[in-house]
Amino acid sequence: MLTTHATEKKANSIWKLHPAYSGSALHEQLAANEYKTVEELARQRSRALRSLLEYCYDLVPYYKEVFERLKIRRRHLREPGILQEIPILEKAMVAANADKLRPLYTAPDQRVTKTTRTSGTTGQPTIIHHDKRSMGMFPWLKQRELRWFRYDPMGTLLSIRPDVEQARAPDGDLLKKREILKLDSWPYTAELFQTGRSWGFINTNTIQDQVELLNKLKPNYLIMQSSGLEFISLQEISGEAKNNLRAVQGISNTLTPNMRAQVENALNVPVHQDYGLNEIGLVAARCPEGGRYHVHEEHCLVEIVDERSLKCVPGSTGRLVVTSLSNYAMPLLRYDADDLAEAVEGNCVCGRTLASFGAVHGRYRRTAFLPEGTFQRWAELQAAMYELAKNNLATVRKYQAYQDLTGAMELRIDCDEDIFIALRESCLQAYARAYKSNAAPPISVVRSKQFRGEMERKFQNFISEFTPESDL
């Protein structure tokens, strides 16, 4: 379906600002930006980037050293392609140069208002400092993506997420297991916009408790980690709860095509996604019409690069690199997100002209070192479980595959005893078909309620010892 500025103005009309923000029209400007010509957007990017580069040249010690080493002078910052001459900034480099990435001087509107942390998957988490504009963009960009998803702001929303990502309980503490947080508005957009009610529930609650709450509250919208959505889709959801549910959003984990199909077919609603980083904020949102991730160009720039740090050819997969345009408190130029994504070209069928990229394939370090064909075989195992669980709802609650350094795999499944034998046989047959040879590493399928990292913020349904660092 082709969208236009007119359709987005209409979609924006149901989002009512709180009286304190009634004079602001940034959400309307964001909608207008989505249909600017490619040339207009290029000029907009160029102006924002040049301002940031000049600031880094003058005031940020780390980049002053980089520019000096590369013999880049201030006049060179006007040149097209100058950004690509700057070395990619990896997480370890941010940790090692955290102080040097802070400017020598900040104007009042560029002073730190909040800090976030890197995920810590490459070692100790690094503190990222954000200024007022950087943090202030989040609710506006969140509303933009929810507008694209055609959410009704007066609907109800259930958020099942880690405790540290939820609002605090009334006593000021983190939410506890089985505790339900009741809010008069939606998280993230409530500061600016009038919304319906919402509830919070932590993701370490049992899948049975999550389903019970979903059936009880019957929300219009559900947001949770992608792996959690997958497990929810294998359960028995009441007809009334399904009828009330209009859309779900998968966050944090990679959502594979198999997982998307499973969730959408089981819940009969679309699965929406965005792409963001603690270090940057919201980076892009996936348009429902074309399935591309459109970049929030007012806030950041995205490149998909190959092993030589050069732009990927369309259709190929490369590393996702982000430059924050909003954060002058700690500028990150060409920051390596450690994710793999597809490069695309041409216009998106949705009609939006914002820069875009294709499917996100997950962490580079979680895929680059795996034996060839690992994820294809993993997809076959998933498909086998989905097929059997489809006709036996609520009998499979959770699962996780673990691959050791010999390539051998253990598949743990929390399921009813009376379905386990059939499920085990189905998975073994799928694994054998996927290898198509007698040289397949062994696989064991066991019934278990114990999973690696299940109390961590991100539950991974696949873990491999070939991955050099944990992604939990």
Automatic annotation (TrEMBL):
InterPro entries from the UniProt entry: ANL_N_sf, CapK_Type1_Caps_Biosynth
TM spans (from-to): none
PANTHER family named among the record's database cross-references: CAPSULAR POLYSACCHARIDE BIOSYNTHESIS PROTEIN
Protein name (database record): AMP-dependent synthetase/ligase domain-containing protein
Annotated source species: SAR86 cluster bacterium
